[in-house]
Amino acid sequence: MDRSVLKKLLQGVEQGKVTVEKALDRLRTLPFQDLGFVKLDTHRHLRKGFPEVVLAQAKTEAQLVKIVAQVKKAGNNLLITRVDSKKARAVRRRHPQLRYHPASRTLYLHSRELEDKGRGKILVITAGTSDIPVAEEAAVTAEVMGNEVVRIFDVGVAGIHRLLAFHEQILAARVLIVVAGMEGALPSVVGGLVDKPVIAVPTSVGYGASLNGFSALLGMLNSCASGVTVVNIDNGFGAGYAAGLINRL
């Protein structure tokens, strides 16, 4: 249920084309649909401007198939994150219209066009190639929210001249997502170059003392660059969603 569907339903009642009883049947699933193992938040699009996103981690193939079927029936969009290739193949056998993005490990059901779209470009930057899976999760999330996304990968501080070669694209972005592991220095560098919001994403990439991303997380939280904010370790989805919301303002 989104604003356009609700508006059309209410107009139908006002014009006498839809009975009150039929309208009540359509609205009875608000604010959620209870499938037993999951309670789908059908009200979220009205509150947030984008439907509920499903985390596939620890969910069975059968559960995902049922979730997709229910969302399809309602005619809504759906983004499923953290889907491995085996699980994706199984779900797509039942729902072939789903799009699978292997690099980001996401499945997307595109049922209708979005009303609200981004006002500028979102730039996703990674320090290294190993950070790309998290960066792609952020990029795909922002894209399915209706944003134009530009990617610049493998431009970390070990060779800072690589980053500076993209100076024009960096300055043209309205929101920037910077993904880095190891010591997590890249967001501070980018934050010192721009006057736009920078969302830093620490990854669990690195050797022993990187502590599975905690070193990068702490480094980013202690950034001396103004305008840098930080999401959780490997949380590409959170960064992409936040960037998408910011880009609507």
Radius of gyration: 20 Å
How many beta-strand elements? Answer: 11
Low-confidence stretches: none
Taken from the alpha-carbon principal axes, the silhouette is globular
The major pleated sheet works out as: 5 strands, parallel
CATH class of the largest domain reads: Alpha Beta
| Tally of helical segments | 11
Corresponding CATH architecture of the largest domain: 3-Layer(aba) Sandwich
Estimate percent helicity.
25-40%
**Which strand order spans the largest sheet, edge to edge or round the barrel?**
8-7-9-10-11
Supply the number of structural domains.
2
> Could you please say which CATH topology of the largest domain applies here?
Rossmann fold
Compressed to H and E, one letter per element, the order equals HHEEHEHEHEEEHEHHEHEHEH
Average predicted local confidence, pLDDT? 91
Distance between the termini: 22 Å
SS strand fraction? 15-25%
Helix/strand/pairing category: alpha/beta
